[in-house]
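Structure in, sequence out. Go:
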């Protein structure tokens, strides 16, 4: 979980810089999502052996990705394709890139998370930024079975027997449907807020990093929280909890309510409390 938020923060930094997607960027996002939350990592090299995806229940092979000797060339071609097809509608580029990354399966583990991060980066670079109000990750997580069904396309479980040349229309329909759902949800939230005389909080929301935005869920339930509650939200260890809260106090995101070391409590800083109305 810590790695996911570290990768998401790096992704938003890349998007703000307007970078072009490269293999190094993809490898760095994978390294971050597989880390323990460290922000400095070395790009992850691709797998050096065969990977096999099996059904956890039956043990039967669900998908046999390409051999490791082909992975580097396939990933190089993917990065090149993304760069050379910027004139296509961004959601289509993102959807195709997601499918192809999952098809290549360049790592032994973390391929799904890395694919979704790559997708999000492409969308952000193309102007499809939901300003932290919603993520496609949430959409996928709500029905993982449908996600796996949509992306499992082809006449064979073997990459070399039809997977690479498959008609991915069904996958792209699923993907764009997820995008439409995400954006419609944000629009409905904005319309509801406007009816109640609410303000546009998008700029204020963009000032927060991914973990801070996630923690707003906690403050919608509690006026005052402990570092343990913050840590439980992310699955962090006690030492990390205290360090994170101190960092947020220094950044002006949190305020200390009870200074006692044994029972220290925090509230959301005043300027951010208006975000709780979203």
């Amino acid at each position: 979980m810590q790695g996911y938020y570290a990768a998401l923060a790096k992704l938003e930094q890349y998007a703000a810089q307007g970078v072009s997607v490269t293999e190094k960027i993809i490898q760095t996002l994978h390294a971050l999502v597989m880390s323990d939350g460290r922000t400095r990592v070395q790009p992850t090299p691709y797998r050096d052996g065969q990977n096999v995806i099996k059904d956890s229940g039956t043990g039967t092979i669900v998908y046999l990705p390409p051999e490791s000797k082909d992975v580097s060339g396939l990933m190089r071609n993917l990065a090149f394709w993304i760069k050379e097809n910027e004139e296509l509608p961004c959601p289509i580029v993102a959807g195709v890139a997601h499918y192809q990354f999952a098809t290549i399966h360049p790592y032994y583990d973390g391929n799904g998370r890395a694919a979704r991060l790559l997708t999000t980066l492409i969308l952000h670079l193309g102007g499809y930024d939901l300003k932290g109000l919603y993520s496609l990750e949430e959409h996928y997580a709500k029905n993982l079975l449908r996600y796996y069904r949509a992306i499992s396309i082809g006449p064979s479980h073997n990459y070399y027997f039809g997977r690479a040349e498959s008609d991915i229309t069904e996958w792209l329909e699923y993907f764009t449907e997820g995008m439409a759902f995400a954006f419609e949800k944000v629009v409905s939230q904005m319309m509801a807020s406007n009816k109640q005389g609410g303000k546009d909080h998008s700029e204020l929301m963009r000032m927060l990093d991914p973990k801070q935005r996630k923690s707003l869920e906690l403050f919608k339930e509690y006026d005052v929280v402990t570092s343990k509650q913050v840590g439980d939200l992310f699955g962090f260890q006690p030492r990390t909890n205290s360090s994170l809260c101190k960092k947020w106090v220094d950044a002006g995101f949190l305020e200390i309510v009870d200074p006692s070391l044994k029972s220290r409590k925090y509230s959301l800083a005043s300027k951010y409390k208006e975000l709780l109305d979203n």
